[in-house]
Amino acid sequence: MKFFKYFIAIFLCLIVLIPLMMTVTISLNPNNTDIMANMGSWKSFVPTSFSLENFKKVWSDPYHPFGRYLFNTAFITTVSLILSLAVNSMAAFALAWGESKYRKYLLGAIIAVLAIPVESLVLPQLLIVSRVGLVDTYLVQILPGVANAFFIFLFYQFFSKLPKDLIDAAKVDGFNLFKTFWHIGLPSSVPVCVTVAILHFLAIWNSYLWPIMVTRGPEVRPLSVAMSAYFSGNQTQWGNVMAFAVCMAVPVIVFFLIVQRHFVASITGSAVKG
């Protein structure tokens, strides 16, 4: 039984690691002819050369300024992440402990939003931002991702389980709803914040459909959209594409390594509570 578990674990790890190995291997090969010749064979996964030429081309390309794209993506993701944590956590706390008698109806409406496909909202949103002149700006890439029904639900599930005596004690001490959230709700919800931060970070960093519809030039364009420019020529330079992909993935890996301890703690904590 233990052997079978190890076998499954190793097999799943290989499924995840093999594409990454292929990406890194191709990014280190400066010869596109060799890359095309080895594509689909075992040589695609074994480095035969260790050149950083593709990375130099990606960073120094005057037509596709990687540094600018990286700044755009980091700025959009950071601002959107901060706003998302603030808006969704406060909305959830108000739904959990607010005094409005319509709280349950509002929560039901928010949960119902989860059943609506995101793609069906793209066209109405595009028409709205076009009318108000937000196309090709940072703001148009930040605002649509701030409020998230799933994140509100996650926070609500946590806040609704806080001891009622604790909330009542805060009211006795003269705390209003926001002060109670700031001093009790938010500090206790760190595990949920970490989970939401990871999910939101990945969603915004890798977002493609919305940015490609609302951006026109490199001034505000993110990495995910900029990468598609490498496929527009007569022959795709796979070495450059993979080098771009590696550079784009590094910040995500670093971010996850920083917060993984809190992420694991949130998962195990939820399991224990369940």
From TrEMBL:
Keywords: Cell membrane, Membrane, Transmembrane, Transmembrane helix, Transport. It is found in: Cell membrane. One of its GO terms (cellular component) is plasma membrane. The lineage of its organism: Bacteria, Pseudomonadati, Pseudomonadota, Gammaproteobacteria, Vibrionales. It comes from Vibrio albus. It is a multi-pass membrane protein. Belongs to the binding-protein-dependent transport system permease family. This is Sugar ABC transporter permease. InterPro entries: MetI-like, MetI-like_sf. GO terms for biological process: transmembrane transport. The chain crosses the membrane at residues 7-28, 69-98, 105-126, 138-159, 180-205, 238-259. CDD domains: TM_PBP2 (cd06261). Residues 70-259 form the ABC transmembrane type-1 domain.
